[in-house]
Design a protein that fits this description.
453 residues; 2 domains; globular; 34% helix; alpha+beta; Vanillyl-alcohol Oxidase, Chain A, domain 3
């Protein structure tokens, strides 16, 4: 049976008549589609908010050994291990239970010049976080602390006592291009690592009473196919043809083009030109372009994390100095910039400055918004909002414990190595109580409140 499509009844000469014909025949699909799509989004937001209510968070403070000789490679191993928390959510988890990927917040906090390394995460990952830190830093001290941002939950701007400077940080170029990593901070002659963390900690240590400076990296383990973007970038650099994949929405909006092509088919082109592909330009690349290809491929071979970077400087108005954040923190982040590859820049939509129109009102809105987002970390993030991708190597570059050569006396560090309990300590058997082995501490004299016979 032969099927014949008759397009003779379509008014192609009158645009208005053609528009009315299109709406009567298939144009109604679009408003119905948008209405159904809106209902789905409302349902998904509801179940996601219900899932968020089940999350409980833990905040840990990390004190590294005083004479730390570990390089950022140890922290890269930590991030590689942390990638095991990746959650490949299935259809029913996403659309019936409203589950979301859990994020981790790695932070450096300076309160009056006192610096502390902080990790904030969903409490079910506590064993994982402690295990991967102790695996690389056996002498580290990990202490559960109260969230330091809770003191500011009731703070709103404007007010008479405090002021704030802050921003989110974006990448200037495509996320496939890497920033400068710690391997490039190693002295080629002496082999000594010029720790990039030194300038950040130095800027934070200069704060005084009434000043606080917070630096935050909210990371979410990326899907294993995140490097598909890198493949397209490499093909573009070498002049190869990139594959452009379409999703369901693209096909839906291609329907009018399909009808127009059926009515007015495009002239046929020669088959020889279709078969002829563009030559690969790899042999004709400059040295810099070859280095860029190698750098993109190197990053693509690493595990990745979707990342959102925020910093906040908050202080009493009597001592407020916005240069602490603008020059201190953002200036320290610029050392990771590579103008030939990628670099950090402030997000103009969140930066608490550089506003021309309606300055006062918009500045107040931005200050309140950046403070709330910082305190929420990744709690309210939805798919597509997790940020750009940084590799484990890049994460270890911008957040790691300082090496021994860094002179940062205000960074909290362990003072002495802890001793392990003897193997002969008794362990409780089932039904015999809760006796567990504990570390023994020798005291020089007995407590003063012991009873005297």
């Amino acid at each position: 049976m032969e099927i014949v499509l008759d397009f003779s009844g379509i008014p192609t000469n009158d645009p208005l008549a053609f528009g009315w014909w299109f709406i009567k025949t298939i144009g109604w699909i679009y408003p119905v589609f948008l209405f159904c799509y809106g209902l789905i989004i409302v349902w998904q937001n509801y179940i996601r908010n219900e899932y968020r209510k089940t999350r409980q968070y833990t905040t840990l403070a990390i004190d590294v050994p005083k004479n730390n000789e570990q390089t950022p490679k140890a922290v890269e191993n930590i991030f590689s291990h942390l990638a095991g928390a990746h959650q490949p959510l299935k259809f029913y988890q996403n659309w019936w239970f409203g589950e979301l990927k859990n994020s981790f917040s790695f932070e450096i906090v300076s309160i009056g010049g006192y610096i502390q390394f902080i990790i904030h995460f969903v409490d079910k990952y506590r064993d994982l976080v402690e295990a991967i830190i102790y695996a690389q830093y056996p002498d580290a001290e990990i202490t559960e602390v109260e969230d330091y941002t809770k003191r500011w939950h009731d703070l709103k701007f404007p007010n008479d006592k405090y002021d704030l400077q802050g921003s989110e940080i974006k990448l200037k170029a495509n996320e496939a291009y890497p920033i400068t990593t710690y391997e490039e901070f190693e002295d080629t002659i002496s082999g000594e690592l010029k720790d990039p963390m030194a300038s950040t900690l130095e800027a934070m240590s200069r704060l005084g009473p009434g000043e606080e400076l917070w630096l935050q990296y909210v990371i979410t383990p990326a899907d294993n196919d995140w490097n598909h973007t890198s493949e397209r970038v490499v093909k573009k650099l070498i002049g190869a043809k990139a594959d452009n994949k379409k999703n369901l929405v693209d096909y839906l909006f291609d329907i009018p083009n399909i009808f127009l092509e059926a009515i007015n088919p495009a002239p046929a082109t020669s088959s020889s030109s279709d078969k002829k592909s563009e030559p690969n330009q790899l042999l004709y690349l400059t040295a810099g372009q070859k280095d860029a290809v190698a750098a993109v491929e190197h990053k693509a071979n690493k595990l990745g994390f979707n990342t959102r970077i925020r910093y906040i400087y908050i202080a009493e108005k009597s001592v407020f100095n916005k240069q602490r954040a603008g020059i201190g923190i953002y200036g320290s982040l610029k050392q990771f910039n590579d103008l030939g590859l990628n670099s950090f820049r402030p997000d103009t939509h969140s930066y608490t400055g550089g506003i021309v129109w309606f300055k006062d009102r918009r500045l107040i809105t931005r200050k309140n918004r950046i403070l709330r987002r910082f305190m929420a970390r990744g709690h309210f993030l939805n798919p597509g909002e997790y940020g750009f991708v940084l590799s484990t190597e890049e994460m270890a570059t911008i957040w790691h414990f300082p090496v021994m050569q860094v002179k940062a006396p205000m960074v909290k560090k362990t003072e002495a190595k802890k001793g392990e309990p003897p193997m002969s300590l008794p362990v409780a058997m089932p039904g015999e109580g809760n006796l567990k082995p504990k570390s023994l501490t020798m005291k020089s004299e007995p407590p003063s409140d012991l009873p005297v016979s």
